[in-house]
Amino acid sequence: MHRTQTRSVSVEAHRESVRRLLAPLRTPDRIERLPLLAALGQGLAADVVAPVDLPPFANSQMDGFAIRSVDVAGGGTELRVVAPIPAGAAPDNLAPGTAAPIMTGAMMPPGADAVVPIEQAVPDSFPYPGELATVTLPSAPTGNFVRAAGSDIRAGEPALAVGTFLGPGQLGLLAALGLTEVAVYRALRILLVTTGDEVVEPGSPLGPGKIYDSNATLLESSMRQAGLDVTRTGISTDRPEELAGLLRRHAPDADLIVTTGGVSKGAYEVVRQAMESQDVEFLGVAMQPGGPQGIGTFDGVPVLGFPGNPVSCLISFEMFLRPVLGELFGSPAPRPAVRARLAEALTSPRGKHQVRRGTLEPNGTVRLEGGAGSHLVSALAHSNALIHVPEGIAALAEGAEVEVWML
Amino acid sequence: MHRTQTRSVSVEAHRESVRRLLAPLRTPDRIERLPLLAALGQGLAADVVAPVDLPPFANSQMDGFAIRSVDVAGGGTELRVVAPIPAGAAPDNLAPGTAAPIMTGAMMPPGADAVVPIEQAVPDSFPYPGELATVTLPSAPTGNFVRAAGSDIRAGEPALAVGTFLGPGQLGLLAALGLTEVAVYRALRILLVTTGDEVVEPGSPLGPGKIYDSNATLLESSMRQAGLDVTRTGISTDRPEELAGLLRRHAPDADLIVTTGGVSKGAYEVVRQAMESQDVEFLGVAMQPGGPQGIGTFDGVPVLGFPGNPVSCLISFEMFLRPVLGELFGSPAPRPAVRARLAEALTSPRGKHQVRRGTLEPNGTVRLEGGAGSHLVSALAHSNALIHVPEGIAALAEGAEVEVWML
Which of A173, A192, A270, A360 is most worth mutating to test chain B (most B CB atoms within 10 A of its CB)? Predict the structure, then answer.
């Protein structure tokens, strides 16, 4: 029962390997056009250029009077009130010496170049349409409370770049530009296989030495949140021929295989054994937890072998698969990375990048949830952040600034 | 054409009004039990108590040898190697003077109270099962590299509280506890009505004075992300009787009506006019943008009237509806609130809570995207954060610390 020697690499080097493994999946035939709302949470597959100006025309920023600024140059000028301009109307030319009641968002009449807000007018209310009336207005410079055509974005300018994550704000811009469809990358099909003789499905009886499978739920929900199309095979035992058969059967329908467990240096490592004849390397990433990793191809299909502890699984997903998918396909969105101060001291293995779980407080401090142990799934469930302790650091004091990723 | 006088309230007071409006929707008949993965992104509707210990049994944190610590008290002790313990097995009692090869996660044999990692053993590899062998081990205290039963959470302890947002970590914990279903609040049914004679559907021709409707896309996608069940009626014109008819038709199937536009103090305010005989108040919230708001009931169904500019709509959703839903129903998750330093100075109307759009940089500074204008939807699409400038502040210098919400 020997223990295998493996290569050790940095977090960055392994992330680069994952990128190289998945980059060939970014092919033109993955691109599809979807209605805007169906594209929510996906990544933009082609640059979008603005087909129109935004705003499309000069319009009023306030309820007030559209005027020619030269007409009120002296201030305290009395102007004749003409027909009001509601939003959505195409107004007539504004005659010199007149003021047109104009509503927020309504088109500026040709000839007008400024708006005086109603609050600055005397009287400060609009006459009824048709009523003969005048209004006295202060001076207002050209452009006063006018939103110029194209002041948000001009026709022909880049609106959104390929690889942009499509959230509400981005889809809102596409709608504002009059677009109804958008090019996105079709979701990757993930084959998710959890392994281990000790692992049983939730809901079954729990014999001695057995634990419930939380990896499948942790990873499938993470992957679904990331917009991936997940197929689960159920739990594989630790018999290599069972796992190999299962992978051989399902691999042709997958873009990427993700396994959990069986990648370490121990005596019963089912994923290693099942992949012995395949082009898969098992290595150590200088990271805690989540160090043991597998990467390569199984029957030509990309494979990532995550370690078996639930926290290690989640951190493997967050450190490698999630950011690389975001980079290659524009989805999922990157985790917001923020700076925070540690609420308590911590230690870390100097040669490893440690990822701790914690809660970021509104005051900008972050406290640890549970210890470093990769089995602490209750502590994970009470965390809202991952705390990064880079390689080379053995201890951090209370108050030290750290990078945290918001979960 | 008079302008209506309205009450002015603070952001906090209006949020409290929204809470009072929606709290009656949190009724027991909204609670349903769903399989874990179907509950992703929803809010927990009942406390969950751990039915089992986690871990369920004492297990090894390392690949190594399970021992009785008294047997190695002197250090450099030679012990007879017995049958190995793979993960998932129910091990026999460990006889005094023996060491059992044990894999990470495997159950500690009765009698053993510590693990010596394989790296510290001489020799530092496991003998083949059945081979007669001894191993020399250093001393190890009781509990060394042992994960005690219940050290993550004990049976009977609260696991997750009612109102918890169910993301991957929370669902992973429920799976680890052996649960297959969870009680959540059924999604609210939202009737979303955008209004305005100036607004046309994306994809249609754009006449003079017209703009494309981005509010519907911004809000529907925000609401879908928040787990809500959205019905759109299409755009209503500015004829009050058309809007009132449309609301009367659809209200019976909605838990909440959300309108956009027509809530201000101007002359053509369709939502105000359509709701004249209903119990709806139109008021000014001391907030920029998003000040004009409507709140009440239409034919007994709760109504929120958001203003008509796209940025105002989104900010109304983020400031009022989103946090109140999270508080009442546990979903959506709160926006991560972080502290950041302004990359540039800004000014703000002293009497209002200003919400600017910006980009939080990895170095912890936040820069503004576009000006304060509520029509700047391209600037919004390039932002990842909302920047809060509380009421009472008229200017902030470069480098000032602000609260930002990550979008």
Answer: A173
